[in-house]
Amino acid sequence: MTGSFEQQLAKDEQAGKHPYIRPKDAATLLILDRDKRGHVKLLMGRRHMRHTFMPGKFVFPGGRVDPGDSRIGNVLPYHPDVEAKLSEGLKNSKSSARVRAFALAAIRETYEEAGLFIGHKSSHDIMRLGTGFEAFAERGIQPDLSGLRMIARAITPPQRPRRFDTRFLAVWADAIADQLPDGKGPSGELEDCAWLTLEEARKKELPLITTKILTDLEQRLEKDPDLSPETAVPYYYFRNGAFVRDLI
Fold it and tell me: How far apart are CA 68 and CA 77, in angstroms?
């Protein structure tokens, strides 16, 4: 990729003009694993070529927040600092249920796309969770938000055919309670799911924002290898035609 992230994003902003669309809430999950030598890998997959949105691109599991995600019960809560970051700058509803829905959407999509269950085994014989989490309930897996950390927030620039207000969350691989035997999710949206080093990931065909998030993650891990919940995170958006990077 030539030029800075800001220059390329501004260039893309001028490439196509579409009527204003309000961005939809979305969330994605970076699942990280660290070996004995301290090298970090993360799970990524290639979007199916049949998709009209970013076909063939390598991405983290995730997607749009569904209405039902805010109605899921029996969930272990966020770390307070993470919840505060996710709550900052929200318009309209600022309820705890809405904030909780960001993580639950990312966890649900991770199961649907990669066949992984983020949470822990519960001692309850019957789990009552809600729509989209039936497979969790069947296995007695309680979604656990306590280990999630916020990495970034990014809003798709205006005048795009699809826009998302995406929260990028991360969790260590020891939060995986179970997985489907074939290593694939039931939706079939992601192919070629694999654990990649940051260097390997950068060699894939990536969306522009994913490239930036990888850089942010690498820089954070150098200074904050345990991903402390209080660490400030970047927030990317456009204002008055200009690219803005704030910290949350």
Answer: 17
